[in-house]
Amino acid sequence: MKLIILFLFLCPLFGCAQIDCNNLPQNYNTYNKALSTVKGAKFSFIDNINTSRSSFITSASYYSCDNKFGFLIIGLQGREYIYKNLPKTLWIQFKQASSLGTFYNQYIRRRYTLVLQN
Fold first, then answer.
1. Which of 8, 13, 82, 117 fits a 20 to 30 Å CA distance from 98?
2. Is the four-CA dihedral 38, 32, 80, 109 of positive or negative sign?
3. Do 46 and 71 touch, CB atoms closer than 8 A?
4. How far apart are CA 101 and CA 57, in angstroms?
5. Angstrom distances, CA of residue 78 to CA of 95, 100, 116
6. pLDDT at residue 2 greater than cutoff 50
7. Which tens digit of pLDDT belongs to each residue from 52-111?
8. What is the pTM of this model?
9. Are 94 and 51 in contact (CB under 8 A)?
10. Spatial distance between the Cα atoms of 114 and 118, rounded to a whole number of angstroms
């Protein structure tokens, strides 16, 4: 019983419950907060790809609430970057690209960047 009470007390403080993707904030103060919030939210569509064929891209995951637009979290040589409002159709094209790095540079980089709140 004591463990249940402790769990109920600590969960709101440490974010045990998942946030529904429809309730995600529009702005974030830090990049790390944006990454952790999106990764911890509940989405209707989550997809990952194997990026071992790329020497530049180390990971790529897509999170969508409405199956039309979503967040892309991409790993590039040890750092993760997050892109907002990326169309799902673009995610599918990215997954099918012969070169993930070239596609990323041409169609994603600097086009869907998450802007932090000042």
1. 82
2. positive
3. no
4. 6
5. 20, 16, 21
6. no
7. 999 999 999 999 999 999 999 999 988 999 999 999 999 999 999 999 999 999 999 989
8. 0.81
9. no
10. 13
Strand partners, 114: none
The tokens of 51 are what? 């990026």
68 contacts 85 by C-beta, under 8 angstroms? no
Do residues 19 and 30 make contact, with C-beta atoms less than 8 angstroms apart?
no
Q: Which two tokens stand for residue 52?
A: 């071992």
Structure tokens at 55: 């020497």
Tally the residues of the chain: 118
For the record, the structure tokens of 12 come out as 């709101």
Extract the runs of DSSP E, i.e. beta strands, from the chain.
45-49, 57-64, 69-76, 79-87
